User: Fold this.
Amino acid sequence: MDDDDAILRLRKVLLDAAGYSVITAASGPEALETLTKGTVVDLVLLDYLMPGMNGDVLAENLRQRYPNLRLIAVSAVGQLPATLLNAVDSHVQKGQDPEILLSVISAVLAQSAGQHNEKLNSAKTVLCVEDEKLQLQLRKVLFESAGFHVLQAQSASAAMEVFRSHHIDAVVMDYWLSDRNGTAVAEEMKRQRPRIPIVMLSGFASLPGEGAVVDAWLRKAEAEPEDVVNEVRRLITLRSDAQQSAIS
Assistant:
């Protein structure tokens, strides 16, 4: 965002070439209007001196309305006011090497993603269902080391009891259980709480129709431990994003 059209165009070319999707605005009010219409952005680059609304006022507005939105001030002013510096995540001097700007953008987005994952994982509970005690303990250690809270069940009946009585954000389940197969359990869980993601682990590929019951089907022989964690994290994030979209 910049009131200088030439700078705005150059910055767009630079960010497009770096692989970012770019939306431009020539003023603070235009930027606020764009976001109010529902346009989703991850980061805003804003100038300090702009007609109608200076960058510090805009940054404070954005921070109040969109607390998770990342903000970077890019200005020729050497001494930026504290009101602006307190509202943004970082700032860059105009006229510096473009690689500096790209580096700061990358760092701010990476920090934001790390904070999001930490917040996401620490608040989420995974129910692990496995009738082999050793495998269940290993899975518990795996998810706890990734920052999740873990509940355990060694049978289908125990799994349903935990599922009904606790807040659950995702289920990781073995297909072969001693009292019922995992698909039957997943079907019952989906009837009760259809939006809870379920990851099925099995020794074979998904059977025709079986995979449609769950959100992901992973073969034990092929899936690395981090693959299981990443898949659970991905599904929880998708559900969280969908809920936020519905709210907004």
The first helix runs from residue 5 to 17. The chain has nine helices and eight strands. The radius of gyration is 24 Å.
